[in-house]
Amino acid sequence: KPAVVVAIDGPSGTGKSSTSKAVAARLGLAYLDTGAQYRAITWWMLHHGVDVADPAAVAAAAATPVVLSGTDPRSPTITVDGTDVSAPIRGPEVTGAVSAVSAVPVVRELITGLQRSIAAEATAGIVVEGRDIGTTVLPDADLKIFLTASEEVRAARRSGEIGRRGAAEVATTRADLARRDAADSSRAVSPLAQAGDATEVDTSHLTLDEVVDCIATLVEERK
Ligand code: C5P
Fold first, then answer.
1. Which of 34, 131, 145, 192 to mutate to test the pocket of ligand 1 (most atoms within 8 A of CB)?
2. Which of 18, 115, 184, 186 to mutate for ligand 1's pocket (most ligand atoms within 8 Å of CB)?
C-alpha cells in the first residue's frame, strides 16, 4: 500500500502548524507547510519591489522565484533562490501581504504543482498543512482533518506566539486573523474550505497533545 498522506486544513490560530509537525514527528512522516510557501513567494515579491496590490504584476513575477521547502518536521526550512527565509516570512510585512499574493490564480497553480510533486516524492508518507489541501491540492489524501477553534482562543494563541500581551494587542491580533480568514475564505480560486470528507476537530478546549493523539489514532485506523 502506498505511503499515507494526511491533509490538515483550517484557519489561522487553530494550532495547525504545531499539530502537523508533531503528528509527522510522532509517525515518522515528512511534513510540508504550504502557508510557508505562500509566505516565501510573498517575501520574494516584496524584496523585489513587486506591487502586491496589483494582481497582474504579481502574476507576471510569479514564475521567477524558486521556492524550496525542507520537509523535516523537526527543522522545516524554507529557501527562496538559495536564501533561508524561514524567519523573515513570519514578519508583519509578509503576513500583511500574503493573502493578496496567494489569491492570484497563477501563483496558486505554481505552488500547487510544487506541493503535489513534494507529496508524490514522500515515500515514507507526509503530513501537508494549509487551507486547500483536502479540497484541491490532494483530494485523494488518506485522511483529511479540518481544525477549528473559537475566535477568542485563536486570537489568544496567536498573541502568545508573537508576544502581544495586552488586551488591546490581543484585539489587534483578533482583527488581523479575521481579516485574513475573510480574504482566504472568499477568494475565487480554491478558498479556505472544509472538504466534504474531512473530519472536523475543534481544538478550543484540547491541549496540543490531545489533538495529536486524536489525529495519530485516526491515521493508524486508515493504514
Ligand atoms: O498558514 P499560514 O498562516 O502561514 O498561511 C499564510 C497565508 O497563506 C494564508 O493566510 C493564506 O492566504 C495562504 N495560504 C493559502 N493556501 C494554503 C496555505 C496558505 O492560500 N494552502
1. 131
2. 184
Cα torsion at 135, 216, 115, 201 (round to 10°)?
30
Q: What is the ipTM of this complex?
A: 0.98
Phi, psi of 69, deg, nearest 5: -115, 130
Instruction: Output b/e per residue, 120-149; b: 16+ Cβ within 10 A.
Output: eebeebbbbbbbbbbbbbbeebbbbbbbeb
Among candidates 49, 48, 78, which has minimal Cα distance to 66?
A: 78
From first to last of the 223 residues of the chain, give the pLDDT tens digit: 569 999 999 998 899 999 999 999 999 999 999 999 999 999 999 999 999 999 999 999 999 999 999 999 999 999 999 999 999 999 999 999 999 999 999 999 999 999 999 999 999 999 999 999 999 999 999 999 999 999 899 998 888 888 888 888 888 889 989 999 999 999 999 999 999 999 999 999 999 999 999 999 999 998 7
- Residue 156's contacts (CB-CB under 8 Å, 6 or more residues apart) are 170
